[in-house]
Amino acid sequence: ADCLDFVLQDQCDIIDKHTQSGLDLVEKYVKFVKERTEIEQNYAKQLRNLTKKYSPKRGSKEELECRFSNHQAFLDILNEMNDYAGQRELIAENMMINICIELTKYLQELKQERKTHLSEAKKAQQSLEGTYKQLDNSKKRFEREWREAEKAAQYAEKTDQDLNATKADVEKAKQQAHMRTHIAEECKNDYALQLQKYNKEQNQFYFTDMPLIFSRLQDMDERRIKKLAQGYILFADTERQVMPIIGKCLEGISRAGTNVNEKNDSVVLIEQHKSGFERPGDVEFEDYSQGINRASSDSSLGTPKGPLELLGKNRNKTFRLFNKKSKVDPISLSMLIYHPFSTPPTPSPANGPPSPKFGRDPLSYCLKEINKTVKPRISSFRTLKRTSVDTEGFTHLPPEQRRKRLQQKIDDISKELQKEMDQSEALGKMKDVYEKNPQMGDPASLAPQITQTAQNMERLRGELNKYEVSFLNPVMPFEFCLHNQNFSYVLFSPGAISDDTDSSQAIYTEFDDDFEEEEVAAPIGQCTALYNFPGSSEGTISMQEGEVLSVVEEDKGDGWTRVRRNNGDEGYIPTSYATITLNK
């Protein structure tokens, strides 16, 4: 029995350690999966931060560049990576729910079940040990009483043979021996009963109770192993389930690369920045010998010199018709603004009716009018204050860009106007319903909304008409042209002409004396032409790609910069057509 108990105890310890080791493995696997989910979550978070870092902000320059396919492809890649990060988060979430939480809950149940089975085994073992102790005690008592009975029988027999012993002593010794024998018989019977009870319990313990407990522990451990194996499979299946979506993300990234169209990007860039300016014509030949021959043929000092001679004489100087010290008659000035050697445009009512002298000989009349005064009295273009940039009319943009912006503005206003018209129609129908069914509402309560809608419609129609007129009437890209006004208004507005024009001055004087030179402003920087610019508009200057010019006046926000050549020629160029470096 002691050997069997030892074997049983040894087997119980083995099973106890084995089942505990299995539970520890489940707990270790749960911790492993938890750390894996943390890695996935951190990976997804870093991917999202990465995509956010490189995603363009709203209204930024990068967002505007998304019209190019290579920029849009990069944006698509960022979106796909964001979706990819979402799939990594889904992996972490599914692993946490299907593996970690599920196995943790199952582990608690296994621990409780294992504790119950081991407790039953311990109780059965304690019960068997108690029965064995009772058997051992009854056995020892039987052994002790039997020895006492033998001693009593031997004493009774010895007393009976003793001649000196009385009859009473012999009877007493026999009675004592008989009593001890009876007690020994009772102990023997009790020992037999205890032995029978122990054997029965021992058979129950080894052949029924303990096999059943061990079988339950075995079933529990096998279920644990099976559940753990399912967790192993889920570890792979969880990621395999999102593989198709991850594959689509990768396909989207590849598709973004194949969608890049370099030719189309070039076309988009051209359409976006197409200025609409005409290409420059051929440079005309300048025959300086004509001015020399004319000067040598002149015999009268009092005769005014011709325009070619004057231009030849002043070709190395900065020729400005209007400067700070010059004053000129408004009529002759208005003629020169448009072109002194061609038929002038019909003057506006502000300038008075056309002169008959002017119509007969425009060129001679123009020169006479210029020479009527020694010191013309109108300020130069440079002294006029810059007019504010008409951002509403987009006149600061090149013609093609201005046309596109105006078209976009017209479309937007048309949509907004259509919305207001629909709202007005809906309010009208609602008013009719209220008038027919007063219980539904008061028609007068809609009056403010109807009035406001009508005002909005009127305002939008006015804006739409304004932009449509601007769209049909392109403006000249010259910063001194006041928008929606003509040159006459600019030059002959109140205060632009001095009132002390002296008409009694000599008309036959030298051209250089009539128009005094203005001090040349110092350059404030340099610029290099990025593109060819024809400079065909009034006040502009032509330039060739790569040409270096001096910056005289920087851009004031209207998109034009004033520059000067080394030979003294000045004019305005589009700021976007050159790289400008200002002196510090």
From TrEMBL:
A Pfam family matched in the record: HR1_TOCA
Annotated keywords: Cell membrane, Coiled coil, Cytoplasm, Cytoskeleton, Endocytosis, Lipid-binding, Lysosome, Membrane, SH3 domain
Give Gene Ontology CC terms.
cell cortex; cytoskeleton; lysosome; plasma membrane
Q: Which GO terms describe its molecular function?
A: lipid binding
List the subcellular locations: Cell membrane; Cytoplasm, Cell cortex; Cytoplasm, Cytoskeleton; Lysosome
Coiled-coil regions, chain positions: 107-176
UniProt domain SH3: residue ranges: 522-583
Q: Which domain of life is it from?
A: Eukaryota
For the REM-1 domain, which residue ranges apply?
396-473
A single GO BP:
endocytosis
Listed transmembrane segments: none
Check the record and name the SMART domains matching this protein: FCH (SM00055), SH3 (SM00326)
- Every F-BAR domain range: 1-265
Q: Please state which protein family the record places this protein in.
A: Belongs to the FNBP1 family.
**Which PANTHER family does the record associate with it?**
CDC42-INTERACTING PROTEIN 4, FCH AND DOUBLE SH3 DOMAINS PROTEIN
What is the protein named? Thyroid hormone receptor interactor 10a
Q: Which organism is it from?
A: Cyprinus carpio carpio
